[in-house]
Design brief:
This protein is an alpha/beta fold. It has one domain: Rossmann fold (3-Layer(aba) Sandwich). It contains four helices and eight strands, in the order βαββββαβαβαβ. α3 runs parallel beside α4. The mean pLDDT is about 95.
Length: about 200
């Protein structure tokens, strides 16, 4: 079975949000259009507690987008975003959710960030997504959503490492940093992934 993974279509990543991805709302009609092409559709949702250690506000001597060492991992410090229970953390009401069978929340541990829909950044804790897909006999995944160079990329890379065939749907993602995303696409392809356009 081939599954669609929709990554983090949440208000804080959309125009006007706390960590808005430029043109991020443009992916929503594309994602809505393709959902019916898949036998299984799942989604991820950033779901941070207030005061998460990846927030710049938790480190008063650092500014947003600085990089620090956080428990042995490089950590970009983000503006406060997707705090659980807030409007910014909600999935956009423009996203068609009737095909989505399950939503996997990530970033719930205050001491470690979680870009991937499968694991936290240290691969210390699973979200349950891999087991869910395997229980449904999924062998391949297409990944779409926000942001292309962070949560989409790391979700797709982990899918490869877990033994799934994986592709990133190029028309249904937008990056924070286009140059960084170009480099990450190369790394993804070298690992056996595909970028699918159109």
């Amino acid at each position: 079975m081939h599954a669609l993974i929709i990554v983090d279509i949440q208000y804080d990543f959309l125009p006007g949000g706390a960590l808005a991805v430029a043109d991020g709302d443009a992916v929503i009609p594309v994602i809505n259009h393709i959902q019916g092409d898949y036998e299984l559709v799942v989604a991820t949702q950033d779901w941070h507690p207030a005061g998460h250690h990846s927030f710049a506000s938790s480190h008063p001597d650092h500014k947003p987008f600085a990089t620090i060492d956080l428990n042995g991992l490089d950590q970009v410090l983000w503006p406060d975003h997707c705090i659980r229970g807030t409007e910014g953390a909600r999935l956009s009401n423009q996203l068609d959710t009737k095909h989505i069978e399950a939503v996997f929340r990530k970033g719930t541990n205050p001491t470690i960030d979680s870009y991937s829909g499968f694991f936290d950044n240290g691969k210390r804790k699973r979200t349950g997504l891999a087991g869910y897909l395997r229980d449904r006999d999924v062998t391949a995944v297409s990944v779409c959503g926000l942001a292309a160079d962070y949560c989409v990329y790391f979700t797709a890379m982990d899918a490869l490492q877990l033994g799934f065939e994986a592709c990133i749907l190029g028309d249904a993602v937008r990056p924070i940093d286009a140059l960084a995303y170009a480099e990450k696409q190369e790394a993804f392809i070298k690992q056996g992934g595909q970028i699918v356009i159109g």
